[in-house]
């Protein structure tokens, strides 16, 4: 019996896709990589997923775990050999339970992030992981990449939001680790090992996640700034004034928002003409646990002095939930605007907050001198030091001409990040696209230790080969 026949016997013909039916699952979101697969299989539950993994292990067939396929580094795309089995998690989409006394929610890996947020809200709780792709990304993918998003400043990455996991091992066993414990000091923390491993150590099938009280009031402001150094000063002021109530602090270059309003003319900036023209914008959000009045007082206590100190050129405070959503929509559609604008070179970097302004100023200058006409599109999560340092090609540059620049530009940017003690991947992972970069910037000992872990847990090397550690 062939492996495909065995998979059909396990999951049913409707959930084993081959040929043209499999094609939608074989290209990454950015359309940079298209692979081939023996089959795409959609298990209904963890037990069936474990059976599928056992069949693949017996056949020595590579396995590519796949969630919503919204990643930036082709981590859920098979290679071109056609030997791999893609395990897509879309049918594992149940909310298994909510415990409001323990403030936890247990969900399957195929749950869309937005559905988890809504389930928590219906129970009177907050699940704070928030991403631009939250309407289509899966929780399993969020955990596999240790996703960050816009509220890391207050709540942490996906790893900090996770208490327990259910995982299918490369041998097809199920680790039942769905414990809702905040204290469990009984040996190695397997949970943290699997989170961020991009499906190279096992297949996450469910998770127990932390919930939080819903804020009693929110305040959102969009601020126009003269420079990124002003944003850093404003962040320090906001941290001092708001403490843990500061849940979001995003920065966007003026070029980013000009692009958004150009591609999506229905979106508007809430400012009139300013001289000098703002070079940057900051999106700041406060979540208050007391009252609307308390939130307003705290907001004014920070924003008024910031304007007096010229840390901000102007400020627009959202007067309604709709206006707050409109401010966030400006931020969240930058990626879509970049996709519409043409080929884009992307970097997902992190540095100490104190170094970001100098890094951007100096690296911008080097790139503009070396590549005249390059359009720099920089935005990100200033509060945790993570910037999406992206660029569009010079006007008139063809796709092939711009692609020829990519390797040199990425090496320049990543070399400068590494020299500053930063990371070349803050929240998007390594996938296929950054494997060579990982080899270049990780120390030999780090790579060796990671390789030992991979060999110990996946001795056949069948879990997501070619990703992270190729």
UniProtKB/TrEMBL annotation:
Swiss-Prot/TrEMBL GO biological process terms: respiratory electron transport chain
Keyword NAD set for record: no
Keywords recorded for this protein, A-Z: FAD, Flavoprotein
Record-linked Pfam families: FAD-oxidase_C, FAD_binding_4
Domain FAD-binding PCMH-type: 33-214
SUPFAM superfamilies: FAD-binding/transporter-associated domain-like, FAD-linked oxidases, C-terminal domain
Keyword flag Zinc-finger: no
GO terms for MF: catalytic activity; FAD binding
InterPro entries the record matches: FAD-bd_oxidored_4_C, FAD-bd_PCMH, FAD-bd_PCMH-like_sf, FAD-bd_PCMH_sub1, FAD-bd_PCMH_sub2, FAD-linked_Oxase-like_C, FAD-oxidored/transferase_4, Oxid_FAD_bind_N
Names of required cofactors: FAD
Family stated for the protein in its record: Belongs to the FAD-binding oxidoreductase/transferase type 4 family.
PANTHER family xrefs: BLL6224 PROTEIN, D-2-HYDROXYGLUTARATE DEHYDROGENASE, MITOCHONDRIAL
Identification of the protein by name: FAD/FMN-containing dehydrogenase
